[in-house]
Structures are given as C-alpha cells and as structure tokens.
Fold this protein.
Amino acid sequence: MEKKHVIGASVILLLLAGVGWALFAGEDQELVEMKQMRDDMLNNMENMSQDERRANRDAFRERAQNLSESQRRELGRGFRDFMMQRMENLLAMPREQQVAALDQLIDRMEERRQNRGERGDRGGRGGDMSPGERDQRRKQGLDRTSPGMRAMMDQMKDLLNGRRAERGLEPIQGGGRGFFGPPGGGPPR
C-alpha cells in the first residue's frame, strides 16, 4: 500500500513539474513569431523591392521594441548566422561565380546608397550618436561576434573592395555590416 502512494505521489510531482516547465520555460510566443518574421524576411529579401524591404524592416523593428534585451539578442543571433552562412557560401564559390555575386552585392549597395542620398538619409541609425555611444555600440558588436566571424568579415571586405576597385568605385569604409545582412542592414537593437 505504501509503495502505491509513493508511486502515485511521484507521478503527480512529475506531472506538476512538466506543467510548470511548459508554462515557464517554454519559448515566448512573441519571440517565436518574431523569429518567423525574421526568417521570412531573410528568405524573401532578394525578391523584395527596396521599399518593401524598408517597410518590413520598420515593422520588424517596431515590433522588436516590445521584446526584452535577452530576446533581442537571441533574435540577432539568427541574423548573424544567416550572414555567416552567406559569407561562407560566397567565399567557397569558384572565382567566376564569386565575381558575379560580388557584382550583385555592389550593385545593391550602390542602389541603397543612391536611395539614401535622394531621401537625405545619412544611412545609419548611428548618425546622431555621440562618440561615446558609437564606441559603446562598437564594443557591443565585438561582444556579439567571434574572432572567426570578424576575420571572415574582414576577408569579405577585402574581396568586396578589390572588386569595387576593379569597377572604378571607392572602397567601403568601416566593418562588414550589410554585405549579406537582412533588410535594412541588421537586427534591431
């Protein structure tokens, strides 16, 4: 009789633990939806116009403001994984395919630059930051990337600038952000 009570109590405790885990340790539905939104944007951005990408990016950023800092960091990891995969793919291409892919990137970058100029946009969310805020953002970026990822971004920048020089264009400045990034150039902050 006593053995039955112990087994029954154990089963009840396991069920309660399972319910508690499902309620409190499960992924937040808003985060799940935001990840789906992110993945949809990344998978379809090649087929979107600049205006569609901007509208999706703005809607995404607005909605992401409701997430906690840790949720936004988790969401950002998906953007970085996407960018890393695209860089790895490009770096592994035969030279002829690589040049064609670089030309597509350069064309998109130049289109974005021209569109920003027409709108009077300085092209980034950091344009109105103080030097201290920019330095803090750079440090956060270093914390979020591995040395291997930074090395790959430097390699991409060198390839891209080499191709830009072959086409008679000025080199890009700064880090590699935006090479393969999502619409608007990066995850929400």
Remarks:
- Residues 181-189 have pLDDT under 50 and may be disordered.
